[in-house]
Each structure stands twice: as structure tokens, then as C-alpha cells.
Amino acid sequence: MLFSYNRLLVPIDFSEESFQAQRLTLEFLDNPSQLHVIYVLPHLNPGEPGLMWQTINDYTRKDYVEKKFRDRFSGPEYEGIHFQVAMGNPCEEIVKYAQVKAMDLIIIPSHKRNILGRLLHGSVADKVIRSAICPVLVLHRDSLTQESVDSQLIQQLTKKLVPV
């Protein structure tokens, strides 16, 4: 075998597309403990009212995200998933996590923004593709919303991947 898929990373942003990518990846794996999920929170702006009034900080935000994730994915089929909340630039944090944890593959959904949206917001998927040291599989929004999508999609696509 050219490539093993024992450690897969799915960055999420709490969109339905990211949850669909996570579900498809989980179906592909033999064991949920092979799945790593990361959510990246941006740093707080010093002018944020919650920060100024000391009602919110990085710890409360991180705890809130972890609770929301565990509430949504609390069933036995999700036991063993590694969930990480990072703070900072999404691309940098995703790539750093993949490198530190020696991920075999990053599976990232694409929101398929138009040209103007890409220019204004950039594309995390594009930046991850350019920066990651492991292969990256981008699942496009159209394929994630179709009723007929199942784990066969990932199996077919990952057979075509060649490590760089």
C-alpha cells in the first residue's frame, strides 16, 4: 500500500458542509479514534465589549465550542474522536495541527465562494492546500449536499491520491 489513512483531520466551522465532511470521513474509517477534528477560533479584538466588560475570554469561548461539539456528537459512534479547539489563523492552525499530530490526510469542505468572495475573504481550503505537508482532499459543496453521497466518494477519491 502506498499510503495509510490512520490519522485523518477534518477542520470544521460548524457549517452543515463541515459536519457532512466529518460524517463521511467517519464512515470511511475503521475506528473513530483515527479521526481528528479541529475548530479554529479567531483571536478576540481588544475592543470587543465582552472582553472589555470581562464577561468573555478565550477560555470561555473554547469551553463553549467544546460543549457544543460534544452535545451534537455525543453518541457512542463518536467516542474516541479527537476534538481540538485552536486560537488564531485557521489555515496556520490547521496546518500546524496536521504537522504536529502527523496526519495522513486533511479532508476539508469547500464553501465554493465566487471570485469576489474569495478575494474578500480568501479561501481556507486553498491556503491549506498550499501550506500542508500532507495530502489534502477538498470536498466541494455541491457533492456534500447531494442525497446520494456516501463514504464511497471518499474511498474513490483517496484511491487517486498520490503522496507528494
Structure report:
The protein is built from eight helices and five strands; from the N terminus they run βαβααβαβααβαα. It has 164 residues and is an alpha/beta fold. The longest helix is centred in the middle third of the chain and has 15 residues, at 58-72. Residues 146-150 have low confidence and may be disordered.
Please give the order of strands in the largest beta sheet: 3-2-1-4-5
Overall spatial form: globular
How many strands in all?
5
Class derived from helix and strand content: alpha/beta
* Radius of gyration based on Cα positions: 16 Å
Question: Mean pLDDT, nearest integer?
Answer: 82
Distance between the ends? 15 Å
Helix content: 40-55%
Low-confidence stretches: 146-150
Strand content: 15-25%
Tally of alpha and pi helices: 8
Major beta sheet summary: 5 strands, parallel
Q: H/E element string? A: EHEHHEHEHHEHH
